[in-house]
Structures are given as C-alpha cells and as structure tokens.
Amino acid sequence: MIKINGILTDVTEQDLELLKSNSKEFWEGVTSIGENAFWGCESLKKIKIPESVTSIGQGAFSNCTSLQGITIPESVTRIGEMAFYNCESLQKITIPESVTSIGDNVFIDCSSLQEITIPESVTSIGQGAFEYCESLKKIKIPESVTSIGQGAFEYCESLKEIKIPESVTSIGDS
After folding, report:
1. What does the pLDDT average to over 134-163?
2. pTM check: above 0.90
C-alpha cells in the first residue's frame, strides 16, 4: 500500500492483514481512497471506512469479488466512477447523506446487490449506475433526484418496482 498526501493507493492482499490486525495503523493519515486502491483484493469481505476519509476514487473497490459489506461514513462526499465495479458479492449498501450524486457506473456488475438506500441529498443518478445489478428488486428514488442517466438500471432483470418522483426531469436512454 502507498499513502501519499493522505491518498491511499495500491493496497495488496498482504496489506489486508494489517487492516484486519491494526485498522488504526492502516487508516492513519488517510483522507481519500485513491483510484483503483483496492482493485482486485478478492479476499476483502467487509470494510469500515473511517470518518477521516472524504472521497472514494474511481474504481477504488473494483473487482473486490468477495466484498459483502461496506460502511461509508458521513464524511464521504464523493464516490468516483466504477468505485464498486464487479463487487459481485455486495448485497446491500447505504449511501451517506453527505453524497449528492451517484456517478457513472458506480455499482455496475454488482450482481448480488439487492438493496440500496439512496438519501435525500442525492440529486442525480449517473449513466449505468446500477447496470447489470441483476438481483436488485426494488429501489426508491428520493424526491431530490432530478436526473437519471442513460442505462442507469439497464439489465436489472429482477427489478420489479421503481418509483420515479415528479422531481425527475430527465431520464437517459435504456
């Protein structure tokens, strides 16, 4: 793992041992999870991000195929594109009130994702945000959302119910 100017990057499977045994040392000085920081950490099952972290970078947890649970603190204001790409074991996630938009492809290919809580603070859902979330059954979009990007729910084969509020003025193709 590398920590430069508060940005955590290049976490390896070996670094996860430190996370398990001494999370305080692991997270010391970290204010941001960098691009692809945990990419491919297949043994990562659960993670609690500390309050010191304010952003999750593009692809931060991509291909963490065993990730089942993640706690995102209220300090996080930004979640980058494809942050949880192919986290195929992730079943549930709560986005904190501090986040104002769900970016492009954030949860793409999270095939086990069944439940997501979108707070009232979110105003936009990006392109492909939940694409290929094949287990997603129900989603409530808050009144604060004004736009839904292209393919946001494309290939969500189990989606049985979706309530789109009157506040939404734009919905992309697919």
Report:
1. 94
2. yes
